[in-house]
Amino acid sequence: MTTQRWRWIPNALTLLRILLIVPFAMALLEAEYRIALAVFMVAAISDGVDGFLARQFGWHSRFGAIADPLADKALLITAYLMLTVTGVLPDWLFMVVLGRDLVIVGGALMYHYFIGSYDMQPSLMGKFNTLVQILVVLAVVILLAGLPMVSWVMPVGIYLVAVCAIASGLHYVIVWAGRAWRLKQD
Hints:
Layout: H1 9-19, H2 21-29, H3 33-57, H4 62-85, H5 91-114, H6 124-144, H7 153-185
């Protein structure tokens, strides 16, 4: 029996993560933090499993390559939006998180249309930024759920997310602007 018949599983897990965004957002909006935490954990586990399966068995697809990072980003943006709308996080932090992503997407589109094709692989700094955003959301939701968590996680997390978002956003701008400049010089 070939494993190829199961190659749809990573994409199904990505779709599950996309579908989990709505109940996650509703739980945050209604201050049902333990439910939000459970949904967030299911999404995180599904992300890990789908990545493992895709790498382990070579079950890569164009859909997965596009949808997987978008699902992750949509879940994180939703978390920061809902925690901002409910007054848990400051407005300016959401603007920094969203602004970074818009600058990167806008820059990628400009590069594509004015310079040429590109392979937008996340940088180490970009991956670190995502990890920090995930850990801060997780810690804040754990704190809000009344589970054991240090009280300083909120103020430290807010500034850590802001610093990482700004630094990684500037990093992408500098790296890709440099590539564009070098290509235009040739």
